[in-house]
Every structure is written in C-alpha cells, then in structure tokens.
From TrEMBL:
The lineage of its organism: Bacteria, Pseudomonadati, Bacteroidota, Flavobacteriia, Flavobacteriales. Its cofactor is Zn(2+). Belongs to the metallo-dependent hydrolases superfamily. DHOase family. Class I DHOase subfamily. SUPFAM superfamilies: Composite domain of metallo-dependent hydrolases, Metallo-dependent hydrolases. It comes from Psychroserpens ponticola. This is Dihydroorotase.
Length: 448
C-alpha cells in the first residue's frame, strides 16, 4: 500500500522547551522525521511551506462538555470537535454529565461509538462517579478511558458525590486519575439563599463569585487533597479559580511523579469580576470568575508549575438559556475554538512564553493522563500539529464562530494571531478558516 507523505517546510517548531527551525516529514498518521532540512523523495509528496510560522503539537484539552447524548440542542461531538480543531485542539477528554450520564460501562461505550463516527478530533471520555456506582467504576479498564470524574459540588442529575464513606471507598479502590470539581455545596446553598432573601430570583450577576465563593472552593479542594494524601489516590483538581487554592499545590517534583495535580481554565486566566458588568451571564461559570488578584495568583502558580495544565471547560448553552436571569441562566460557555489564540494573545502581552504554552496545553496533559504518542513533535508520534501565524489579526464574530450555540464570550475580540493549519493524525483537517471534513479523529490510548 502506498503511504501518504506530507512534508511541512520552513517551520519554527515549538517543542520540549525550545523553538527550532526545520522541517517535519509525515507518513500516513505518524511523524517520520524532524530535521533542519528534509528533501521530498518523490513527486507524490505533499509539500506545505508554512513560511516561518510556528508549529505546535496539537493541544490536548482535558475538560470539555460536548453535550452528546441527550443535550444536543446545545452542542454535539461533531460540531464541537470541528470547533476544537479550528482552535488547534486536536484531542479532547469529555465529561460524563450528559443524558444519560456516563456512569455505566454501557453508556461509556455508547459515547465512544458516537465519537468514532463523528469526531474530527481525537477523543476520550471521563467515567462518572456517583454515590452508588462503585461496582461500575471497578468494571472500567483504566487503559481504555482518560479517568474518573467526581463532582464534589455543582453536579447535574445524581452526580454529586457527597457521601464521605463512598468518597473514601472510591479514592481507595481505583488507580485511575480522579478528576474533581471542587466547590462546597453547603456553603454555596447558604450563600445563595442569603442573596435570594435580599434580591429575589434576579440576583445581580456580580454576586456570582460571592455566592460561589473562595471559601466554597477552598473547603472542597482542601478536603479532596487531604483524602488523596490519606488514600494514596491519584488526584487532579479541575479549574482552579482562587489564589488561595494555589497554596495547596507543589512544584517540588516533576509532573510525572506528582500524585496531586491541578488545572486552570482559559476564562479564569482571561476574565475577572470587573468583566461581569459588560459580559453579564455570558461569563457565568462554575467555579465563578473571581477577582483580578485571584487571576494574578493563578498566573503565578501556572508559571511556577504549581498548576500543571491549561484547559477550557468548554460547556456551551444556547443564547436563550444564557440570557435568563441569574437563577435561571446556566453556568458554562464555549471556548475550544478560541483557547489557543487567547493564550498566544497572552504571549503578545508578555504574560507567557510560546514554549510554556506548548508545555501547559500539549505536553503536560499527555504526561498527566499518560496519553500514548501525542502532545509532542517527535518521530514515532501521531502527527497532530497546529500551525500558527502569530502576526495576522482577526476578530471573533458571528460569521466565524463554529460552535453549535453560535456565540462566544470572545465575540468582538481581535486576536493578533490565527491558526492557519491543523493536522489530525497526519490529515489536514483545517486550513485558513475552512474545516476539511476528513473525520480524522481516533480514540485516545493510554500508556498505563
């Protein structure tokens, strides 16, 4: 069988803490060679000259909600995976709070089946824990899924795991990475009732970070970490939103040796409570966007390696849903299409280096979840690649938004950089604002 060969010429390759100039040779879905200069061996080689633009490994987003099955009026795997590759995210890990919830092996396999037919990006799923599905958790093959997701606050359906004995049993019983949403439900309920007593149902959106407070986050995350230390569980804390929580994490050992890790999301690095006045419920997330001081402390912990990963928590809702009053508008927003360029914007502002972006969005998710042969640009790895022109401005508007929900918290924002090409398993899947519908995504595999 004739191999499909692609040669990427004149790249600035951002990989493993360095930027080097060179070429990348792809055979079928694998990177064959990375070198200063590679010549095409035959006329059949597809040559793509990227003219000195930057080439990153495809980003791995460890937390998305693509809403399928059951909530597909908001989004589905097909639409959101296309938005992801347009945003340079070539692999995603999707959450279990769909309908039905991914809390049985049968429901998990159903989602894998959907993705195998419709996903443009590489995919895996989290298995969901509840107060009463430990038997199902123990059936899951750790090599076949990204990990286990527990809601320790702000759950949907029956996914709030609030029984301490069950929680300890889960932590003690699985070798999978346990990823947690940490907000203390009792604290939030008390704060919410106080605000309803004062304002009724139409609470000012500016009160969101007071209702879903620093204390709510810290109480929950500190308990989860205490339990992980007690049981020896492998714990990953999703979407840190407070400066106070960053003190719970360490940079004393390499990521591959850490038992307790942390993630921060794009919105907590970009927005602050000063943005509620203009953006309203369109930046209503759980955990809440908090103060500029919190944001500064999150940046500090990201850059000094107490926080390990940048993700999106992509969670679309319809415009009609988001336009509701405070108590009706759901939390969450779409982010996969704009996350990478948002971080490149932070490079332009002097906040982070290109090498650090590659580390936090590409390399570290691969290390943390032990993803096989992805997250780096090196021979033998799958050819998931993103080409970025860092000096070619464009503005986010309704015409170029690819999310099924049709809106973005970045609408009206002009980014200095754009993604020109995205390769998924060696296939050119996106080129200059055009999706090439090759459905090249594969199921992620794990080195466990």
């Amino acid at each position: 069988m004739i191999k499909k060969t692609t040669l990427i010429k004149n790249a600035r390759i951002v990989n493993e803490g360095k930027i080097t100039e060179g070429d990348i040779l792809i055979e079928d879905d694998i990177i064959k060679e990375v070198s200063d200069s590679i010549s095409a061996k035959s006329a059949d080689v597809i040559i793509i000259d990227v003219e000195g633009n930057y080439v990153f490994p495809g980003a791995i987003d460890d937390q998305v909600h693509f809403r399928e099955p059951g909530l597909t009026h908001k989004a589905n795997i097909e639409t959101e995976s296309k938005a992801a590759i347009a945003g340079g995210i070539t692999s995603f890990i999707e959450m279990p709070n769909t309908n039905p919830q991914t809390t049985t092996v049968e429901a998990l396999e159903h989602k894998f089946n959907i993705a195998s037919k419709t996903s443009s990006a590489n995919y895996s799923f989290m298995f969901g824990g509840t107060n009463d599905n430990l038997d199902e958790i123990l059936k899951v093959d750790p090599k076949s899924v990204a990990g286990l997701k527990l809601f320790l606050g702000s759950s949907t359906g029956n996914m709030l795991v609030d029984n301490p004995k069950v929680l300890e049993k889960i932590f003690s019983s699985t070798n999978m990475v346990i990823s947690v949403h940490c907000e203390d439900e009792a604290t939030i309920k008390k704060n919410l009732q106080e605000h309803i007593d004062q304002y009724g149902e139409d609470i000012p959106i500016s009160k969101h970070p007071i209702i879903r407070s620093e204390d709510a986050c810290y109480i929950s995350s500190s308990k989860a970490i205490e339990l992980a230390k007690k049981t020896g569980a492998r714990l990953h804390v999703f979407h840190l939103s407070t400066g106070k929580e960053t003190s719970l994490f360490s940079n004393k050992i390499p990521l591959k040796d850490k038992k307790i890790t942390a993630e921060v999301c794009i919105h907590h690095l970009w927005f602050s409570d000063e943005d509620y006045e203009k953006k309203g419920t369109f930046i209503k997330w759980n955990p809440a966007v908090k103060t500029a001081k919190d944001r500064d402390q999150l940046w500090k912990a990201l850059l000094d390696d107490r926080i390990d990963v940048i993700a999106t928590d992509h969670a679309p809702h319809t415009l009609e849903e988001k336009r509701g009053i405070y108590t009706k508008a759901p939390s969450g927003g779409p982010l996969v299409q704009h996350a990478f360029v948002a971080m490149i914007e932070m490079f332009h502002r002097g906040k982070i280096s290109l090498e650090k972006i590659a580390e936090k969005m590409c390399h570290n998710p691969s290390i943390l979840f032990e993803v096989e042969k992805r997250g780096y640009i090196k021979p033998g790895y799958f050819a998931d690649l993103v080409v970025i022109d860092i000096n070619n401005p464009w503005s986010v508007n309704k015409e170029n938004i690819l999310y099924k929900c049709g809106w973005s918290p970045f609408e009206g924002t002009t980014f200095k950089s754009r993604i020109t090409h995205t390769f998924v398993n060696g296939a050119l899947a996106y080129n200059n604002f055009k999706i090439i519908d090759v459905k090249a995504g594969k199921r992620l595999t794990f080195n466990r």
